[in-house]
Amino acid sequence: MVERGLHPNVFSYTILINGYCKKMIIDEAVHFFRELPRRGLKPDNGTFSAMLWGLFQTGRCGATQELFNDMQAAGIISNSQIYAFMLDGLCRKKNISKALSLFHMMERNGLDLNIVMHNILIDAFCKDKKLDNARAFFSNLSSRGLQPDVKTYTTMIQGLCEEGLLHDAKELFVKMEQNGCLPNDVTYNTIIQGFIGQHKCYEALILVEDMVQRGFSADASTFPLIVDILSTKGQNPALQEVIKKFMPKDSRGMQDIELRRENKF
To answer: In angstroms, how far is the first alpha carbon of the chain from the final one?
Structure first.
């Protein structure tokens, strides 16, 4: 383009910057970003979004914050996607206090705090073992005019399972469908793993049966756990009947089960 006398615009630069960021070649992305003002061009929301994402993914939190500050100083209004990037990046780096401060700043300024941003903080609280905070955010959704989506419910279910609160997790699992939000394959695998982790094997396999009837299947993390249950010596035959309903007899999984059972005798 340049050799033919054509002048790349901001959109052209943003495509390159986005590509380099996705490939984690951040130095090249920074090079093109810094070239913009030399070409008389100003980065837009898309350019900033790509750069912020790339800097966070490569662990350059300080540079990300500086770029975000520069963006605000330049008078460029951040959109929801950029704020979501900032919240997610801060939470991934376990800077939850800064993420919460940013959230409250958005709240004070009357910015759109959508369900995606709430999900990011709920997930961060759960991973940081601050389940009370996660529950508080979850409980306040309705007062903010928001409805939890499947990710919200799944995140809360995982947090409850990891704290051993299986009754609460199952209650929320039932409640989500009553509220018109159907569980997906991730939801099922999450709660199944939670029950298996607490040695509630029969309850887990009942959930497996329900999952399969809805057209979902065990993922790569859940499947070996199910195989381990059924390969245990002296396991309740009722459990094997449950598993046979969703696993063909000639499948590799059934072969693994039989082999493990033989090795345990």
So the answer is: 71
Average pLDDT of the chain? 86
CA distance 262 to 265: 5
Rounded Cα–Cα distance for residues 176 and 219 (Å): 21
Distance CA 131, CA 126 (A): 5
Instruction: Tell me if 76 sits within 8 A of 46, measured CB to CB.
Output: no
Say what the pLDDT of residue 226 is: 79
The model's pTM: 0.78
Distance CA 67, CA 69 (A): 5
pLDDT the model gives residue 233:
44
Tens of pLDDT along 235-253? 556 656 655 655 544 445 5
For residue 194, what are its two tokens?
A: 């939670």
Q: How far is CA 236 from the centre of its chain?
A: 36
Q: Which residues contact 50 (CB under 8 A, 6 or more apart)?
A: 14, 17, 18, 21, 29
Closest CA to 223 of 241, 238, 211, 235: 211
Measured CA distances, 148 to 152, 159, 254, 258, 262 (Å): 5, 15, 38, 42, 46
List helix spans (H) across the chain: 10-22, 26-38, 45-57, 61-73, 80-92, 96-108, 115-127, 131-139, 150-162, 166-178, 185-197, 201-213, 222-230, 237-244, 252-264
pLDDT digits (tens, 9 = 90+) for 56-77: 888 887 888 888 888 888 777 7
